[in-house]
Every structure is written in structure tokens, then in C-alpha cells.
Design a protein that fits this description.
Helix content is 77%, strand content 0%. It is an all-alpha fold and 103 residues long. It has one domain: Methane Monooxygenase Hydroxylase, Chain G, domain 1.
Length: 103
Amino acid sequence: MSTATVPTTRPRRASRRQEAEVLSRLRKAHGQLAGVTSMYEGDRYCIDVLDQLSAVTAAIDAVAVLILTDHINACVRAAMDTGGTEEVVAELVSAVRRYVRSR
């Protein structure tokens, strides 16, 4: 195993456009979840609530893919350039495992 470590300073995210996209999608998902809460509190039909929860989950998953892509393109690439290949790959695999396990 290499003696290099995962950098403690993080490189700038891939792009301002992508950052705006992530924030926009998170805000949209937040609004969708607020809508689901209102539906549930309003005693809406269970299947309708579940359908909306599914839409929120899909929105969150899409954001996760954007963030993962950004991480690979910026953070992982920078770490690999400085010799932290094994550690950063292990960290990435662990993060993906945790995300998939939570599904």
C-alpha cells in the first residue's frame, strides 16, 4: 500500500454550472419532499404519497450521480495526480458502497 494519503484540502468543484445544477436539483427535491409531507398530513391516498416519494428518491439519486461525477473529475483526479491513488480509490468505493447500501 502507498504511503500517500487522501488530501485534506479539497480541490474546487468541477464547474460553477454543475454547482448551480446541483443546488437547483436539491432545492427542487426539498420542495417535492415538503409537498409529500403536506400530502401525508392532508391524509392523501397512500399510493399517491408513495408515488411522490418515489419521485423525490429519483431526484436525490440524480443529484448523487452529479456529485459523484464531480468528485471523480475534481477530487479523485487531483489525488491521483499527487500519488494518493490507492487511498482515494478506497475512499470512493467506500462512499459508493454506503450510498448503495442505503437504498
